[in-house]
Amino acid sequence: MSTPFTKVLIANRGEIACRIIETLRTMGIQSVAVYSDADANAKHVQLADEAVNIGPAPATESYLNIANIVRAAQDTGAQAVHPGYGFLSENQDFASALNEAGITFIGPSVHSLHLMGDKIRSKNHVKEHGVPVVPGISEPGLTDAQLEAAAADIGYPILIKPSAGGGGKGMEAVQSATELKPAIETARRVAAKSFGDDTLFLERLVQTPRHIEIQVLADKHGNVIHLGERECSLQRRHQKVIEEAPSALLTEEQRERMGQAAVAAAKSVDYWGAGTVEFLLSNENPDEFFFMEMNTRLQVEHPVTEMVTGIDLVEQQVRIAQGEPLDLASNAVELQGHAVEARVYAENPAKDFLPSTGTIQYLDEPTGPGIRVDSALVDGLEISAHYDPMLAKVIAWGPDRTQALARLDEALSTMTVLGVDTNIDYLRALLADPDVQAGRLDTGLIERKLDTMTAQELPESALHFAAQALVDARRSSAEEHAGDPWFAADGWQLAGARPGVVTLVRDGQRHRVTVPGADSGTPDGVAVVQQNIGATEDSTSADIWLKTAGFAGHFAAPSRAELVDMMLDDATHQPGSASPDVRSPMPGTVVAVAVESGQTVSAGQVVASVEAMKMEHHMRAEIDGTVTISVKPGDVVRGDQVVATVTPATPEPAEPAEPAEPSAPAAPADTPDSSENPTN
User: Fold this and answer.
1) Rounded to whole angstroms, how far apart are CA atoms 377 and 43?
2) Half-sphere exposure (CA, 13 Å, Cβ side) for 237?
3) Distance between alpha carbon 85 and the CA centroid of its chain, in Å?
4) At 616, which helix (H) or strand (E)?
5) Strands, E, within 114-238: which ranges?
6) CA 489 to CA 617: how far, in whole Å?
7) Alpha-carbon distance 247 to 491, whole Å?
8) H or E element: which one contains 191?
């Protein structure tokens, strides 16, 4: 007889914590949120019945701190813990600690986590059970030298993969032997930081594959079913961007074959709970598929399965953890219609998808038939550099794939998030791609078409709206100084109101915009947020966040002093010349310094690495010279902060030239030199 839970702690944050809380509330179960110092005002903290602070902002001191989370569950009387995804969701030490404390882990057994939570172990396990795997080397404890030797035997291109964790973190595609050593170093560093385990293995890189995953459910009584597949081939840097269910590629027969393979893999480890078995296959031969891994947790993209099956996977997880038998059968699960999910990230696609930080100044999330938004966004929320940059997921259902894609595009067109850069316009460009519309997908599609999808034109209307908003705001601010002509911002003159000229800066480019003298207001469909607005521009720089049709982004309005500095820099800076300063492209934490002050470096050489929002970025010297390092590992840096300076070598003065011998008399002017072309 199962014993229902009355209180469950969620060992996670963000949109997944909010989503779990909603299901718990529907089931009549109280929820306990945990939060770091950085998340004190987060949405999941506000939604939960109780909330417990578990430590400082760094995940290693809070969301990855097993002792603190177990203590929070004990102190609040929670009978079970839901781990969400990421963080400790596949950590067998965490599951063991909960078991020892008499608290139920809403996930599989420690035995299953041990076998399937490690990619090397799981790959070898399923291979023994006849499941085809991608050629490579997957042995525990491989050294860098062993990996390098194995790579030569496997042949390039290859894929470096961390044994622990998931989500594409630490995966590195290597095309040649010269790229291997630095790629191994990066993969180990990212894996250690993200998962606490830097074990790596290698696989042959399967070119232009499809990524298909099968959702499984299993209870503690030996019943295992599958709920069909999800197509997850639209990826960038091995991170899924858009997912859908079902796949446009598979036939019913192929779906069932893969489904049964996933069920067999789950049964082989006595699995219970929700899980996902991931496969690679090619467009040309969908009948041939390779096992990649089993994720022993809920997936980010689980909503598309819920939308086409009508099954709440979190509810099923809770009921299974309580000991209830499944009341479903695979042949009773019908896939109705089509669902597509897009992940909204705080990042700037035009700047190589660098993470963006800031504060949410304006928020409008879409609604409508077939639309679902899983989000942790609220007005005033600070988006920090400490955690993953995913802000929300927008999911659309339709009776067929065409309508689902159209609904998702419409939903994204109305979604407005101002205060941080987002990838919303990029997602719409991706959805509009002819190959995506036709279902001709593979995991390399995004990389091949990245330039066309990230190139965002700057509409003249956006410049006009931003400039007008700035002028209107300054006029409003000037009203506080009514009667003082020096603060008047109305452009008054005897001949009538004088148009103003505003300078706006976006992505390093300056734009001069003429604004009418009168206040024209903001039209419908345009959202504008102004920050740091002063009565005059003498000493006040301003920020404008704008959303209009086909554009969303940020403009800076420099003060007069800043504008003068820019003009002076233009006068002294030679166009096209490289900078001696090495700057951090984003706020984050220095994770590695590759050189020492006084060392000679060459252009393109990595001098330091910064990590933010689970992304590691290498900073390189732009010129040859002697480097001076300004940071050390562990330092927190601002965006655009100088981390190193390269002093170019001073050329030695040339030796005085020896006096030249007297030259022969010049030829007469009318005698052509045979070496010259006589024609002009």
Assistant:
1) 7
2) 9
3) 15
4) strand 615-620
5) 136-137, 158-162, 172-174, 200-204, 209-218, 224-236
6) 44
7) 60
8) helix 180-195
Q: Which residues are registered as beta bridge partners of 211?
A: 280
Task: Name 338's Cβ contacts closer than 8 Å, sequence gap at least 6.
Answer: 244, 245, 246, 308, 397, 398, 399, 400, 401, 403, 404
Residue 627: alpha-carbon gap to chain centroid: 31
**CB-based burial of residue 580 (10 Å sphere; 0-12 exposed, 13-18 middle, 19+ buried)?**
middle
Q: Distance between CA 509 and CA 297 in Å, rounded?
A: 45
Helix (H) / strand (E) element for 582: namely strand 581-583
Query: Is the Cα torsion angle 468, 471, 474, 479 positive or negative in sign?
Result: negative
Please answer whether residues 422 and 344 qualify as being in contact, where contact means their C-beta atoms are separated by less than 8 angstroms.
yes
Contact 451, 239 (CB under 8 A): no
| Tokens, residue 47 | 């939604």
Token pair of 419 as six digits: 């205060």
**Percent of the chain at pLDDT exceeding 70:** 88
Cα–Cα distance measured from residue 273 to residue 267, given in angstroms and rounded to the nearest whole number: 12
Distance (Å, whole) CA 415 – CA 394: 9
Length, in residues, of the chain: 680
Q: State phi, psi for 233 to the nearest 5 degrees.
A: -80, -20
Residue 567 DSSP SS3: helix
> Cα–Cα distances in Å, from 365 out to 278, 393, 631?
31, 10, 40
Helix (H, G, I), strand (E, B) or coil at 2: coil
Angle ∠(289,294,295) on CA atoms, nearest 5: 135
**Cβ within 8 Å of residue 289, ≥6 positions away:** 132, 212, 258, 261, 279, 280, 281
Distance CA 456, CA 445 (A): 19
Residues 429, 349: Cα–Cα separation, whole Å: 11
> Bridge-partner residues for 634, per DSSP?
none
Residue where the block lists tokens 């718990």: 24
Best CA proximity match to 170, nearest among 596, 679, 591: 591
Kind and range of the H or E run holding 68: helix 66-76
Helix (H, G, I), strand (E, B) or coil at 127: helix
Q: What pairing do the DSSP bridges indicate for beta strands 606-612 and 371-375?
A: unpaired
Whether the per-residue pLDDT at 519 is higher than 70: the answer is no
Closest residue by Cα to residue 517 from 480, 460, 462, 468: 468
Distance separating alpha carbons of residues 631 and 581, to the nearest angstrom: 13
For the record, the structure tokens of 460 come out as 């003249």
CB count in 10 Å sphere of residue 371: 17
pLDDT of 249 above 50? yes
What residue has token string 């400082």? Answer: 56
Grade residue 169 by pLDDT with cuts at 50, 70 and 90: confident
* Structural element, H or E, at residue 501: strand 500-506
**pTM score of the predicted model:** 0.81
* Average pLDDT of the residues in 392-412: 98
CA distance linking residue 554 with residue 419, whole number of Å: 8
Residue 501, strand partner residues: 514
> CA-to-CA distance for 128 and 84, rounded, in angstroms?
30
Contact 227, 200 (CB under 8 A): no
**Per-residue pLDDT at 562:** 81
Task: Kindly report the backbone phi and psi dihedral angles of residue 437, in degrees, each rounded to the nearest multiple of 5, phi listed first.
Answer: -60, -35
- Mean pLDDT, range 385-392, rounded to an integer: 92
Q: Which residue is listed with tokens 């982004």?
A: 553
- Listed in sequence order, the residues at least 6 apart from 601 whose beta carbon sits closer than 8 Å to its beta carbon are 595, 607, 621, 624, 625, 626, 627, 646
